[in-house]
Amino acid sequence: xxxxxxxxxxxxxxxxxxxxxxxxxxxxxxxxxxxxxxxxxxxxxxxxxxxxxxxxxxxxxxxxxxxxxxxxxxxxxxxxxxxxxxxxxxxxxxxxxxxxxxxxxxxxxxxxxxxxxxxxxxxxxxxxxxxxxxxxxxxxxxxxxxxxxxxxxxxxxxxxxxxxxxxxxxxxxxxxxxxxxxxxxxxxxxxxxxxxxxxxxxxxxxxxxxxxxxxxxxxxxxxxxxxxxxxxxxxxxxxxxxxxxxxxxxxxxxxxxxxxxxxxxxxxxxxxxxxxxxxxxxxxxxxxxxxxxxxxxxxxxxxxxxxxxxxxxxxxxxxxxxxxxxxxxxxxxxxxxxxxxxxxxxxxxxxxxxxxxxxxxxxxxxxxxxxxxxxxxxxxxxxxxxxxxxxxxxxxxxxxxxxxxxxxxxxxxxxxx
Length: 417
Prior knowledge:
Elements: H1 3-23, E1 36-43, H2 47-63, E2 67-74, H3 78-87, E3 94-98, H4 102-108, H5 129-133, E4 136-137, E5 140-141, E6 144-156, H6 157-163, H7 171-181, E7 188-191, H8 196-203, E8 211-212, E9 215-216, H9 221-235, E10 240-241, H10 251-256, E11 260-266, H11 269-276, E12 282-285, E13 297-305, H12 312-322, H13 325-332, H14 342-347, H15 357-361, E14 367-368, H16 375-390, H17 396-414
Parallel strand pairs: 1-2, 1-3, 7-10, 7-11, 13-14
Antiparallel strand pairs: 3-13, 4-5, 6-11, 6-12, 6-13, 8-9
Helix pairs in contact: 16-17
Family: Belongs to the bacterial solute-binding protein 1 family.
GO cellular component, one term: ATP-binding cassette (ABC) transporter complex, substrate-binding subunit-containing
Protein name: ABC transporter substrate-binding protein
């Protein structure tokens, strides 16, 4: 059991018990006009997304006239604020939870299991399986994903055509295409993100496990051999670069500026490219296969319920609407996120869309960015050391050995074995 987290668990459960006792016998507390008011918290987003969410919430209130939603935007340090409020017994009834944070919060017991709220007409099988699994543990489900994005290969059509290069479908083809597309240090064939959130599926492509039994597991031959070609493309081939090498902030900007012909990016890059670089003619394709296997990453956020809520039925009504077919259709209609329900993606035509289609196609086989409660510690240490190997300061094994030792030392400090 985690020593540090155990203190938090005790504090949370104490507050939880007090909150539940306070709510015993009160049922669904009613506000003005006989309505049940529930609190819903999330982080800030763009004005366009905020407007769309307001519309979805207004639609919910219109179809559920007995429920009022008080929406709060937590602009900074979202998870710190949420955890502090949960510990103090003042957490929101419903709130956003990123998949990477879900395992840790599930462990504390502050999330309400949702299994017994689900009815057959909610159609659980309609969800993309990997996205649902990110919020499950021991047969219980603690959240439903509101949307997602996978990674896809985004490429400059003009550059590929001029170089006589076909869109690569395998990683070997990508590496060969990068050689033809690279022009000194002005244009690189491939823009890379040397960090774990983007390379996790690559690191596991030879059957290795980046995380094993809650510990960092970077230095097995399978993981090292899977990552070495990624580093070699930068150091040896010199056909790949990270954004800072060319004065860009991220790989989407590299593509838009014409400093990379191909990048792996998510759905968020599409509106950015269209608005910031309207003259670029880009396409998307599924991530090239690695060692004959399909792979990509997926990033998702779920709606979860506070176990201490005294308004659980109303809270479930909100969650089921937001992740139901109608609510999700409205929320994903502007393409800020992709629908986690397969039927909604089909109804909106996203699965056949020439730009979005490859992103949707990756959902069934994606690796969701969520791997146990220790992943935040593991990826921080990976990122801190992997870049030193990426830029050639030291061998990959040496860098990842230090990352592994540091990560497991921090995890060991938190655990009683």
